Amino acid sequence: MIDERQNLLTPEGAELNLTLAGPVPRSAAFIIDMAIRCVVYAIVGILMIFFSTIGQGVMLILMFVLEWFYPVVYEVFRQGQTPGKRMMGLAVAHADGTPITLNGSLLRNLLRTADFFPFMYLAGFISMLSNARFQRLGDLVADSVVVHVEKPDLETVKATAPPRVPDWSVTLDDQRTLIAFLERGVKLSQPRRQELALLAYEELSPEMAEMHALGNARYLRGGDDA
Amino acid sequence: MKQQQFEMRHQQEWLAFEEQLALLEGSKKDVDRKKLLADFPEQYRRLCHQFALAKARGYSLPLIEKLNELILHGHRQLYRHRLPIVAPLVQFIAYGFPRAVREQASWNLLSGFSFVFALCFMWVLVALHPDMIYSMLDVEQVDQISNMYDPAAGFRAMRDGSDDIAMFGHYIWNNIGIAFRTFASGLFFGVGVFVTEIFNGAFFGAIAAHLINIHHDEPFFTFVVAHGAPELTAIVLSGGSGMRLGWALLAPGALPRLQALQRAARKAMPVMYGTFALLLIAAFVEAFWSPRDFAPAVKYSVGAAFWLLLYAYLLFAGRGRSHAA
Questions:
Q1: How many C-beta atoms surround the C-beta of residue A4 within 10 A?
Q2: Which DSSP category does A44 fall into?
Q3: Cβ contact, residue pair A59, B169, below 8 Å
Q4: Residue B324 within a domain
Q5: What pLDDT, in 10s, does the model give residues B52-90?
Q6: Are residues B49 and B109 in the same domain?
Q7: Inter-axis angle of helices A122-129 and A23-48, to 10 degrees?
Q8: pLDDT score of A226 more than 50
Q9: Mean pLDDT over each residue of chain B, to the nearest integer
Q10: Which of A8, A51, A53 to mutate to test the interface with B (most CBs of B within 10 A)?
Q11: Contact state of A64 with B266 under an 8 Å Cβ cutoff
């Protein structure tokens, strides 16, 4: 099964979900990082014109440091996030969810060359598509993954339907579905909400079905007026 | 308990935890970590408990995801790897690096052998048939190299400090890049490593023999003898590390291929750290010492000292002490 979620059991017994990042957000993060480096090169390059030969040497050292160690420094000292990854809401971590170590970060970034082979990260791309955790070659060797880290916003829903006691014995699954309907409903259009509600209350009119679904959900979720 | 009540009851705790996280994840130096961390594990465990409850009671997905997210961040802080720098560095130089090198001696020998074999082969070939140099390099390159090491050339005296820095940058960018790429190319079953080692060895052998043929050998050997020790050794060692990766893929033994590869990489990594250090030294020597005009006797003795010290270090440092790791 293709699933971007990976379960992780912590020593505290909590089973967590890591949401793995695929090739597209990762490429975007890479391009942002590359653009940042290019801007630095351009600025320093222009400054270094005034220093001729010394400038050439400084420029090459700068290029060496940035090309090889820019991701390492950020990944180790900034919670696994280069500026590009931060913008895309990504972070590098070890496959067990712990933060990336210096060793791991260096390894995955030195092996970037192998991922780049033969051009434009083709080897890395094939590797990402052919394993369940979207790992490029460097990630495989360093046992690291790239995960989504942005925080989901817990929206408080203002439903107009009055709370309503369900007239059947509610299973856990019913409860989950109804509450999800209530909380995510704000992002849907009303016809879509009614359409979904009809699946559960097929004997009612669309308007009534929505009222019932939201009302039952509000009762189940509980609240000041429930 | 209904979800709303649950949220109301624990909201404050979650907010407090988020604040702690923000402080811990921030880069401020004045944060009093000890004080912050005093009740962090307890809070974290409470959170894990609430998370389990929320899942078992069928609370909504966004709530569960929010708790999941908080715990993940907490997990990351709690199991953060410490980064002590100085002590491991001293240990690494005193015995970690030479031990790591000796530990993969067979790979280094194989890598070194392919380098030296190619070197000797081209050297003998070009010495016997001077025209064979053109099988490695084209006419312009040969002319350029011949001029560069012309004993009668006047430009060597004109070289100044800014050229040194320019060349230093060049050596860093170029040579260390080669070493890192050689290591990475090991992932393709080690084939790339052999190509690099053989090509570099052949190139060096061909040039050396050619310069002897045209009697430009003294400027050349006095130039390369000192920095050659760390530089050539580093290229061979990065090759050895790369071959080790390739071999772990080809013949993983009792382990699954991926695990064999991860283990080989973990063990080869210290050698790559050392290689990096050796190439920094090499770039420094090559840029600031090698181009200086001293009597050949001085340059050869300094060069010999480099080779002797380096190999004494790699072969004998850190023997006899019990393994700390």
A1: 15
A2: H
A3: yes
A4: no
A5: 999 888 888 778 888 988 888 888 888 877 666 677 888
A6: no
A7: 160
A8: no
A9: 88
A10: A53
A11: no
**Whole-angstrom distance, CA of residue B261 vs CA of residue B250:** 10
Q: Quick one: pLDDT at residue A159?
A: 59
- Same domain for B178 and B120: yes
Confidence of residue B325 (pLDDT cuts 50, 70, 90): very low
Q: How far is B290 from chain A (nearest CA, A)?
A: 17
Domain that holds residue B266: 87-316
Set of chain A residues whose Cβ sits within 8 Å of the Cβ of B269: 103, 106-107
Q: Looking at CA atoms only, how far is residue A221 from chain B in angstroms?
A: 5
Task: Give the length of chain A.
Answer: 226
- In chain B, the residue whose alpha carbon lies closest to the alpha carbon of A104 is B266
Least confident of A82-96, B33-47, B223-237: B33-47
Q: Flag if A103 and B25 touch (Cβ within 8 Å).
A: no
Q: Which of B78, B98, B125 is the last residue of a domain?
A: B78
Residue A217's closest chain B neighbor by CA?
B60
Indicate the pLDDT class of residue A1, thresholds 50, 70 and 90: very low
End-to-end CA distance of chain B: 51
Task: Give the pTM.
Answer: 0.78
pLDDT at A42 over 80: yes
Q: What is the mean pLDDT of residues A188-195?
A: 88
Residues in chain A with CB shorter than 8 Å from the CB of B54 are none
CA distance A191 to chain B (A): 23
Instruction: Using alpha carbons, list the distances in angstroms from residue A124 to A130, A145, B32.
Output: 10, 13, 41
Residues B231, B304 share a domain: yes
Q: In this structure, what are the phi and psi dihedrals at residue B219, rounded to the nearest 5 degrees?
A: -60, -35
Residues B52 and B102 in one domain: no
Kindly state whether residues B53 and B153 are assigned to the same domain.
Answer: no
Biggest distance spanned by C-alpha atoms of chain B = 93
Average pLDDT over residues A126-148: 92
B168, B184, B188 member nearest A57 (Cβ): B168
